[in-house]
Amino acid sequence: MRNSFLTITAALAAGLVAVPAVANAATPAETGNDALEARFEDFAALGGHTVLAEVRDGDDVWSEASGLRSLEADAEAARPGDRVRIGSATKSFTAAILVQLQSEGVLDLDDPIGDHLPGLLPYEEDPTVRQLLTHTGGLPDFLPFLYPSLATGDISDIREGYRRDYEPAELVAIATQAPLRFEPGTDYAYSNAGYVVLGMLIEETTGNTIGHEMRERIFEPAGLDRTYLPSGRGSSLKGPHLTPYITTGEEDDPYFDTTKLSATQMWAAGGIVSTVADMNDFYTALTDGTLLTADELAEATDFADTGRDFGYGLGLFGQQFGCADDEVFIGHEGDGLGHEVVSFHSLDGERHVSVAWNIGDKHGYTDPDIFGDALEALLQTALCGDES
Prior knowledge:
By secondary structure, the protein is an alpha+beta fold. It is built from 14 helices and 14 strands.
């Protein structure tokens, strides 16, 4: 649900107070990666959040879970295969479908949105599909209207509105109360509303629901057996999962359980539920030819200038982590209003890291700089190994 992605140490900062932690290695620690194990333990020890991680280097796979599935006294220990909302990492899936549709001749990414969804956007300047994919279309967002507290810290509006259902067109209408942020193509500003429009575009051009297209085009070809885009209304979480919380800033009630967040509120922009292993499988399939051809992947990783220390392609961040030769990794981060994820991958498909935790710290219960530094150290070790 984030409105921006700054740096790994700033935009991913979150943390909690302590609860008992239990570690469960899904693959033996005999992998010999003592540094990775140490970085994971450092990150998990910072607070009471439960942490899931999976790291791949070629055929070697390391995964771990630390903590309990919820803050309840009788909660079970977490497992690496537990599900979480992946939030804005959903955008990588939505974008991949649109790249496929262009190759099939269904649309052109340089088409104005109005060519396919006439009258949806109330602006004289019509952004293109590509501009919405790269967040360069100038479209405002709906989250500041739904939840002003995301900026102010008072979560009363979240308590009142997190279960409300919306149609995609409603979310777009809420966002477009505001003018365009800038002339399309002239700047960068992250917009969840843009990806809701893109979800509507997928449905309009295919005649199918986006859930159907996700299953047929992404989940099944990539073998994502524990991943789904919730359909209908109501809560999105099913099966073994981490309970998502946000911090409240209230001493007598410090955490708010957001399990029943309406699945309609983020949809094509952030609605997918998955696991850290499935996220690694998805980005593997994105780079090995399963989902995109080499030419399509090259187009998806033609990063727009964001004016910051990362680029943004077609649903993909391009981020450096201090590896040799300034290597750029692709992936995404996501905020699922309680569930937080970060997932990055080498373009050669050899190195992958996905990390998830279950409390969105809106009130700084853990020092954000310390938390961010520990997360960055884990990601660097996972992706760069001895180079980091």
